Structure formats: C-alpha cells, structure tokens
Amino acid sequence: MVVETIDWTDLSFQEARQTLKKWRDDHARRSEEIVEIWEHVLSRYTSSLHDELWAVLEQVTIAAIDSARHDVALQCLQKLMTQFPSSSRVAKLQAMRLEALKNYDDAEALYNKLIKADETNPGFRKRKVAILIAKGEKLEAIRELNEYLEIFINDTEAWIELSELYLKEADYARAAFAFEDVLLSTPHSSLNLRRIAEIRYAQGGQDNLELAKAYYDKAIQLNPDDTRSLFGVVLVCNQLANKASPAKKKELIQTGTRALDKLASIYKKAGDNPKQDIHQRTVNALRTQLSQS
Question: Where does this protein have coiled-coil stretches (predicted)?
C-alpha cells in the first residue's frame, strides 16, 4: 500500500488557508503539520488573512504547545496578547504554555485568576486539576475536583478522574461512589461496568463481592467475549463460594464453570497464539481452584 506524502511547505496561500480552516472545523489534531504550514506559508501573508488571522494564531499556538515548539507558541501569543490584552481565552493559552514548560506554579496562579473572574467556566477548573496532579498534589486535586463536580455534576470525565484519584489513595469506598455516578450516564457500557466491578472486588467484603458479581454479570451480557470480566466472575465466585450455603455454593461453582468454559472457547478460537499454553494452564488452574471451594 502506497501512502501519499504531502509537502506542506509547498502549499499555496489559499491551499494553506483552507487546510487550516478545515482542520479547525473538524477539530483535527495535526499539530506538527499546522506549525509547518504556518512557518513556511501563512506567516508570510498575515495581512491577507484579515480577521481570520486571530483564529489561525490561536490554532497555531495550541499546535505549537502540543508539539513543543515553544518559540512559535510565544510568537503567536505575543500577537494575540497585543490584540486582545484582556481576553480570558488568550490568558488560558498563556497558562497552557506555562504548563507545557512545567512552570506549574505560575500556570496555577493564572488559572486561579481566570476562575475568580469566571467561576462557571469548566475548562479553567479542569486545567487547574491537571496541574495539581502533575505536581503530585493528589489530595488537593481531589478537593478541587469535588468542588468542581458540585457545579458540573454531569461531567462524566471528571467523575472518572476523581475515582482514579481515590484509587491511588486506596480509598475504594469513595472510588466506587464516584464511579457509580459514571454509570448513571453510561449504564450500557460494558467497560465501565467491568471497572466498577473491579473496584468493588478490590474493596472486598461480602456485600462488595456480591455487587462485583452483579456488575461482572451485566458486563458479560453486554459483551460476552470480555475476557477480563469472565476472569472477574470466576474470581468472585471462588471468593463467595468459600462462605456460601451448599445450595448457593453449587450455583456459584456452576456460574464460574460456565465462565471458564467460555474463556477456553475464546482462547481455542484465537488459533495460533504464543500465549495459548499460558492461557490454557490459567483456565485449568482456576477450574481446579473453583472445584475445591
């Protein structure tokens, strides 16, 4: 297959202008190409861009930050700051550049000013949380995220981030609570169902293991070939069977055995696989362990 290569430095003014506009409209992440087109073509014809210049400068600034071209980012930022000295949008770009340079304290101070000026802007708050995480201040990031979610309660991405932060602190109860808010907006995501099952399993205890099994079961209903969920069901059934009544124990062993049969079938269908023997031995070992519960 022949891959067509484009010399971005050889575009005409109109081609370069239209290309950047299309990428802006499509929200395409083409950072290196954007910087290249700017440096070699559009930067020579800034007056011909008229009012479109400011949108292009913003686009190039973000691309330059993303591709570690801090010299280009600074040049574009200086033009934007001159034109829009009081713009919060330009100030955010300044903070993003400071972040990229790992100047976290100054970036955080700038975001604090932006938040104070506009407390309803989610972008400023989320960037501040990212800085706190980068600085290793996880507890402060947790506090900030909780405050953020009091205002933006439907932000699924923020709930996931909060859950992950709690997990890093081994606070499984709060991690589970946060992730269950994720399920409110994604009730049919097998991936998220598996994740909450894993958190409940790690939390331990009879009630949490029962919840973990229910979540794993639901994840498998939605994605029958999810091997991690199938393994999860086996592990949960094995744990629960140790303290179950005879009737319940029989049911759990049957459920775990069905999951192991499905795993064996999946690995068999996979054909040639360098890890096939390892997978088969793992399934056999779990089958033996389950039968001895």
Answer: none
